Every structure is written in C-alpha cells, then in structure tokens.
Amino acid sequence: MPRNKNNRWLTALDYFFVLRPMLFYPGWSTLLAGYLIVYKNQYYLNWQQSLQLNYGEMGLLLIIFAAAMGASFLLNQLADVQSDLKNNKLFLISEGHISRRNAMIECGGLSLLALGLSLLEGRAVFAVVLIFIVLTGYLYNFQPFKYKDKPWWSLWANAGMGFLAFALGWLAVSKTVSWNLVFDALPYLFLNTALYFFTTLPDVEGDRLAGKKTLAVQYGIKRIIWVAFLLFLLSLLTAVLLRDHLALLIVAPATPFFIYTIIKTDVSSTILATKFSILFFAVAICLKIPFYFILMLAGFYATRWYFKARFDYDYPNFKGQK
Prior knowledge:
Elements: H1 8-12, H2 14-17, H3 24-35, H4 47-52, H5 55-79, H6 81-87, H7 91-94, H8 100-118, H9 123-139, H10 151-174, H11 180-199, H12 204-209, H13 215-219, H14 221-241, H15 245-264, H16 267-286, H17 291-311
Helix pairs in contact: 3-5, 3-10, 3-16, 5-8, 5-9, 8-9, 9-10, 10-11, 11-14, 14-15, 15-16, 16-17
C-alpha cells in the first residue's frame, strides 16, 4: 500500500489526479490527429501553416474532452472499487482518499462542463461528446449493460472510444459528417484497439479473482498479443495506403516494440509497447503542434511529483510495469 502524506495542499490535488490526467494524452493525441487530418500528407507544418491553426479552438476541444474523459474515468473507478483493490491500483477512491459521494458530484460537474462547452462547437461535436460520456461512463460500467464485463462488447466499446476521440477533432474542422471520417480514422482505430488489448493483460489475475470475463481472461495472454500484433500491422498498412504521414510517424517507430511482444509473449513487453506507442503518438503530434510538447512535459512531471510527494509512488514511468 502506498504511504500517505496528509498535507492539505496535496490532498486537495487528489480531486484532479483522480481524473487520471496521464490518460488524457492518448485521447488528446487522437483528437488532434483528427483535427489535423487536412495535413495528413505532411510530416510537419511550416511556420505559415502553423500560424493559420486555430489554437483557441484546439484549446477548447482539449478542455471539452478532458472533462468528458475525467467524468468517464471517475465512473469507471466508482464501478471498479473491489477489482481495483485486488489489482492494487487506482487507490484514491478504492482506499477512501476521496469519498464516493464527492466523486459522483465531481463527475456530474465535469459532464455538464463538457456538454455545455461542446455546444459552442456545434451539434455534431455535442453529439459525439454526449455519446462518449454515455458509452464510456454509463453503458461501459453499469448494469444492465456493463460492457466492460462482456468480452466482445468491451472490445467494441473501447474501439468506439478511440473512434469518437478522432471524430471529435475531425468534425470540429469539417463541420459535416461523411464516410471520409471512417476511412481517415482507420490507422488510429487499429492502433488504439491493439493497445486496448494490451491494457487488459496486466489485470488478468485480479480480474479472474473478481469474476470478470475479459478477453484476456477468456483467451489468454499469448492469443491476445498475437491479435494485437495483427491489428498493429493493419494500422501500418492503412497508414501507407491512405498516405497518412502522421500515422506513419506514430506506427513505424513502435514496430520494434510490437515485434518484441510476440517474441517475449509476456505482460512486461506489452506494457512497454503501450507506453512507447502513446509516446510516439504524442511526439508525432508535437511535430505539427510544438506547444503540445510543453503540455506533455508539464503533465508528466506534475503527475510524477504528485504521486511521489503524496504517496512515495513511482508513477508514471517507462518501465515494463504498471
């Protein structure tokens, strides 16, 4: 159990870090990939193109999606208190540092914030945010649906989460819905789904003890790793076919890590592949939006400082462990 430091300023920060802000970056990166889709054939932007970007709108979208993701992560933790205790993770709610009542109030406020601000971006963006909150917050976590405990529904729900993140950025730019959205999303959809398979592996034992029937519990580690690798290859192939240079910048550097997973076929290698894929995704976005690098560094070091100061806990890190 992590060592608690009951400094009132640190405990106040519990309400921010319970939102799991390091997980904002995969969502933000996918959103920004959709927002930058008109530049998909370029590895980077020149100064003139960079100055033409609407940074105010991008900032608004990041806030909207952070609020939506934060609400979703809170609902997930509220629904997973017992399995989180068994898996020794996400202890802010499960170990009582934040009460269930306060977490529910915070979740409601974040949902209203996300939906209210999304109206400024139009009905299509509002609809995507609403679907995201309903899918990832309610349908995924609670009865009678509880998709996370139904292996195949969990897969489709997580694939849908990645697609909705991409669609949020894509629709903010295009303003209209078309089949191009589906085609443009494919490299990112395949990669994010591959990473989803990996995220089910570290909790296999805890999930099995809790009676959860995840795909990893049902099919085993080796099969899941091979399925994830095939999805990764589809991500690489579609990036080439669509001439999406941004996607290639993300997928190509991750290739050695995915190859390593099928050589080792262990959980540690999949954790490394996941962490570095997320890093490569974010770095590729930075080549087009340099300020995103500052946001990444700020989030990483602020989170490391908080968990070290508050709980003497090493998170986040680039080790092959949770």
